[in-house]
Amino acid sequence: MKRVLFVTTSCFPVRGAECIVNARLLSVLSGSRQFKIDLVTKKSKWQNYPSDSLQEYGIQLESLEMIEVDNRINIRTIWQHLLALITFGTVNKGDHWAVKALPAVKKLMKHNSYDYILTRAQPSHLIGNYVKRKYHVKWVCTWNDPYPTEMYPKPYGKGNDETIASKYAKTIRIMQNADVFIYPNKRLALYMNKYIKVADDRIKVIPHVMMEEPQMKVRAKSDKLCFIHSGDCTGERSAHNFLLAVKELITQGAIQCDEIRLSFMGRINEADRELLKDTTLDSVVELRDPVSYLDSLEILKDYDVAVIIEAPWEEGVFLPTKVSDFMMKGKRVFAISPRVGILHDLYEKGYIQYFADVSDYCSIKNEIGRIIKDSKSGVWNDLTINVPVEYTKSYVLNEFINI
């Protein structure tokens, strides 16, 4: 039995991608009865989607500490950021939560003995470094996205640039102190290790875990070809070319309006909403109300193809949470993503069925055309989903046991 101190700002209520991946991991670890877990977290205030409770995931905790902070700029938060600088030796936006959480962590350290502290994203890394230095506890640090955020790939960040890295030298030195680094995919590990610069034997690649055994066999769900995009299509992550390509294929007679349905379960850009005023698209596109994460998994069963649309990054280093969801539920996946990236890697290995370059309209249109053609063939009704073993509960559980 391992005792773990789990520290993250994103977990409860379960809404948003980071909350979801943390809740799934807690469900698998605590459900195995091989871990005792104390959770220190912050109440999620992200309101775009309904939430699930920890109980619905079957999560069993030894203790739960909910640490609240004000994110507005005022005298109190300015003072708390100054305390973060004094306490941790560096400060970035949002680090005041670590200051507020520290007393609860110290109390837990006083009364318990831990095998390791598991931190998930910023600013929990400050707590991890503090606990390692003061209490000599192994620190396992997880990064699901690049940090500092200014080093996101373009267009959302400034890329992996030495000048930017030097600006955050103190923060990166703290990050380097972790004993074990966990990333959800190899591309992100390589991307971040260009500036963190630690030995390969301290790095583990553990994807976002499935909560259930994968459904391997797939059959068509109705007489229509049904696509669903679950999650937001906003900002650079736009459904514009996807919608235009479907419209053009309908106009060209590749498929009839009554043979196809596109559902979006989440927000879309206003410019894309304007496209839906077109008579052709209006008859095939459905905008569904957002639902909780667990409810969204149930809705998937009514669809044939799950769509992932990414921003046109220079490199796709992000592993979308929904990839393992779609595999788990036995869905064909259509990824519209950077040509150089983790989703294209999965496509080349046969784990994703369809792929188009997000920056290439013709690529998107041609791949939708291939999906339409396949849906009218005999093989459509008999598909076995190929799932990487690294995404399964047993694999991920074994990795955390062996840390």
Name the descriptors:
15 helices; Rossmann fold; globular; 17% strand; 2 domains; six-stranded parallel β-sheet; alpha/beta; seven-stranded parallel β-sheet; 403 residues
How are the SSEs ordered, and which strands pair?
Layout: E1 2-8, H1 17-31, E2 35-41, E3 63-66, H2 75-88, H3 96-111, E4 116-120, H4 124-135, E5 139-142, H5 162-167, H6 169-175, E6 180-183, H7 186-196, E7 203-205, E8 217-218, E9 225-230, H8 240-251, E10 260-265, H9 270-275, H10 279-282, E11 285-288, H11 293-299, E12 305-309, H12 322-328, E13 332-337, H13 342-348, E14 354-357, H14 361-375, E15 383-384, H15 393-401
Parallel strand pairs: 1-2, 1-4, 2-3, 4-5, 5-6, 6-7, 9-10, 9-12, 10-11, 12-13, 13-14
Antiparallel strand pairs: 8-15
Helix pairs in contact: 2-3, 3-4, 8-14
Describe this structure in words.
37% of the residues lie in helices and 17% in strands. It contains 15 helices and 15 strands. The chain has a seven-stranded parallel sheet, sandwiched between helices. Strands 11-10-9-12-13-14 form a six-stranded parallel sheet, sandwiched between helices. It is globular, with a radius of gyration of 22 Å.
What is the CATH fold-level name of the largest domain? Answer: Rossmann fold
Secondary-structure element pattern, one letter each:
EHEEHHEHEHHEHEEEHEHHEHEHEHEHEH
Tally of extended strands? 15
Supply Rg.
22 Å
- State the secondary-structure class: alpha/beta
Q: CATH top level of the largest domain?
A: Alpha Beta
Number of domains: 2
Supply the CATH architecture of the largest domain.
3-Layer(aba) Sandwich
Q: What is the fourth-level CATH superfamily of the largest domain? A: Glycogen Phosphorylase B
Fraction in beta strands: 15-25%
Which descriptor suits the 3D outline?
globular
Q: Report the total helices.
A: 15
Question: Helix proportion of residues, in percent?
Answer: 25-40%
Mean pLDDT equals 92
Within the largest sheet, what's the order of strands?
Answer: 3-2-1-4-5-6-7
Biggest β-sheet description: 7 strands, parallel
**N-to-C terminal Cα separation, in Å?**
13 Å
Q: What are the segments in which pLDDT stays under 50 over at least 5 consecutive residues?
A: none
